[in-house]
Amino acid sequence: MFNKKLEKLLNEQLGMEAQASSAYLAIASWCEINGLEGAAAFFYKQSDEERVHMLKLFRFINERSGHAIMPALTKPTTTFKNIQEIMTLFLSQERKVTESVNKLVYIANQEKDYTTLNFLQWYVSEQHEEETLAKTLLDKIKLIGLQGSGLYLIDKEIGQHASASTQDTAE
Ligand code: OFO
To answer: What residues make up the domain containing 36?
Structure first.
């Protein structure tokens, strides 16, 4: 019998992944219409990845004889000041998700649900990767600045990570 407390929390996690996918899609669209090709490619990709993370949770919950439920999503932010604001949002969004994953790990351990604990390890390392990437990109924006050709260089740099992070969507 699948632990009801964990089923509920995993469903909430699934909602967070869906919300992140929607938020990154809105960011990608804004970047695209504002000439930020690299950032648009990056966030379209991030959005796809979050959807994959959501689907993994769907499948896992149902495999454990629970019921995965798609929640209602809130409308994401659709306009932004600049790429620095976007990257700051990206980092804080990822930190929120990490916190939630950590809470899940703690409870899975407490409940002695070792299958869920094992399943969550993938999310733990994924969050570490994403947070590191968000922080690196934000640091680069601060270092290079958005003046003159800075914005062009930043956009190019971010775009390079769109083709580098293929790990999740390939699964
Ligand atoms: Fe789902 O990987 Fe970050 O949020």
So the answer is: 4-170
The alpha carbon of 149 and the centre of ligand 1 are apart by a number of angstroms equal to 31
Pocket flag, ligand 1, residue 126 (CB < 6 Å):
yes
pLDDT digits (tens, 9 = 90+) for 77-127: 999 999 999 999 999 999 999 999 999 999 999 999 999 999 999 999 999
Residue whose C-alpha is closest to residue 42's, from 136, 159, 153, 135: 159
Give the whole-angstrom CA distance, residue 118 versus residue 36. Answer: 39
Rounded to the nearest angstrom, the distance between the alpha carbon of 129 and the centre of ligand 1 is: 9
Q: How far is the CA of 148 from the centre of ligand 1 (A)?
A: 32
Q: Whole-model pTM above 0.90? A: yes
How many domains does the chain divide into? 1
Domain with 49 in it: what CATH number?
Answer: 1.20.1260.10
